[in-house]
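>> received
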Amino acid sequence: MRSIEGKRGEPTPRPPFPAVKGLFAKPTMLNNVETYANVPQIILKGADWFCEMGTEKSKGTKVFALGGKINNTGLVEVPMGTPLRTIIYDIGGGIPNGKAFKAVQTGGPSGGCLPAELLDTPVDYDNLIAAGSMMGSGGMIVMDEDNCMVDIARFFLDFTVDESCGKCAPCRIGTRRMLEILERIVEGKGEEGDIEKLENLANTIKATALCGLGQTAPNPVLSTLKFFRHEYEAHIKEKKCPAHHCQKLLQYVITDKCRGCTLCSKICPAGAITGSVKEMHHIDTAKCLKCGACIEKCRFGAIVKI
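>> returned
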């Protein structure tokens, strides 16, 4: 037993360390539930059976939580190496309402967003990392043409900022600075040089953060910058959101489909819409709050976002 010096120079016994106990005071193993679920089958059927599924380096199957803009949401289990296209279209049933596929994010909030040209990527550990994403927690979020990839990056980074333990400066401060830049961009206040700042911060955080959360936090930003850089540039240089999603960058316009029913002018909280009955109406962009109430009320599809 280790000891410390007492007041009179005599050794004083050091108190023993408290005994470590697991659940119900029994030895306890902590692991992923998915791993536990595989163990009984491997014991019953053998390791060779398990290794018959999957790829050379990624054995067995993987469970994904399939969600987002997809017809069939829920948990899916596929052999490692199954292409993204098979999961999204054959199992997930494709994109609702005839919309075009835009991206899929794998690995949870710290995963990367992969575009349509990577739909044939086999889903395993090595291929996802090489593509700029990761297996992570097994999340798989599908996005369509209406999703703004800048706002998607902002959304996932906002989660990471909240989850940071605050121990190391790269994660505690760096991710918050990145979030502030992204918030400015989606509000139409982006500046020249913001993209470069995001890249520098992201690469620094990945290289210097202490834990996995900080090291992977920049993935949504880096992957969207890699595959959807033009959307960042449009937000900053043209003050436009190509997906017509970011409210601060939208402009509402009434087209010649207008029948002059006056419903839009009655619903507008800012009094920005003018026009007589049975005549084409107009929106004063200076007064418009961009709330979208007029679009929801219009029965003729005459109001569009540009």
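>> The radius of gyration is 27 Å.
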